[in-house]
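Give me the fold.
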Amino acid sequence: MIYLDHAATTPIRSEVREGMIAVLDGDFGNPSSAHGWGRRAAAHLEEARERVADTIEADRSEIYFVRGGTESDNMAILGHAAAVRHQGGTPFAVASTIEHKAVLGAAAEVANQGGRWSTVPVYADGTLDMDALDTALASGATIVSVMTVNNEVGIQLPIEDVVERTSAHRAVSHTDAVQALGKVPVSVRDLPVDLLSLTGHKIYGAKGTGVLFVRRGVDIAPLIFGGGQERALRPGTEDVAGAVGMSIAVELAVQEQESESARLRGLRDLLQSRLEGEIPGLRIHGDVPDRAPHILNVGIPNVDPEALLAGLDLEGIAASAGSACESGAQTASHVLEALYGRLEGVAALRFSLGHSTTEDDVIHAAEGTLKVLERMPSVETPA
């Protein structure tokens, strides 16, 4: 089996598993408890917070452990909207057209709750429509969310410019860095973004783990209520083992980023060259200078995408049709439609590489893809 779907999820690495098991088997107490088990659990939690903070160059008070990337995105956008309303204002969320559905859904919910929301186009060359962003900011945008790296095509967005423009209008900036960590540099010291979202399972951590970075002084209100955990922003008994695993995954991802990114870039380019030379009409989605090294999204004309994926699965190759974050539904990709318009009769296939990917894997994946395509009937493109 050749696993080339690392942008969907990754296996837990041994260091993360061992760190989590040590907590689960030993210091399993509730960190809010005053006895020894509780104090030891609390110590693990704060060590994990410190590890994440040091790795992304934040202060430990700015790190909140949450239950994944979707929750982190929602807490950032809807939590800030709630804070704006509490202060008597009208929240106005702005997001790029190629954001993850967690961001777009949260931004739309701002409007459902009495605020406003809008999108800013991203074009096929990877550029963000800065004039549209400036217009939204001048119209009273309170938060702008632009991802660091797109999860479907790997485009790196100009987040530094976004943060600068947003700050100039005294709005809050948020970036979903879920696909960025471990692939491109992520530092909240170098990038003065106000809110930043991470998840563990994209970087060889556990599912259901995540982080929200909230820069000191940025207003954000809780979305759920209960105890005072995570400084009352995310109440509920903390998942100490998950936080420990998340922190280890973050630390190792950043430590290995430079060497692993170079390795993955070489393998991605090899896979791309093998496919480009053999598939007529192949197009590379997100083929821009600034793209993450681990994602290759190709468009194959006159092919049924579901049949293609099924054929690859039979060949022992795991890939995905665009994003794998919509409960397995093979619907049209909003990202590809935003970038290129409606792609009728084109199968969009995403290969995403990771730690376990070897040169042999890439070569066999290319050969397997060609073998599947040879067996498939051509699909007529609608007029």
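DSSP finds eleven helices and twelve strands in the chain.
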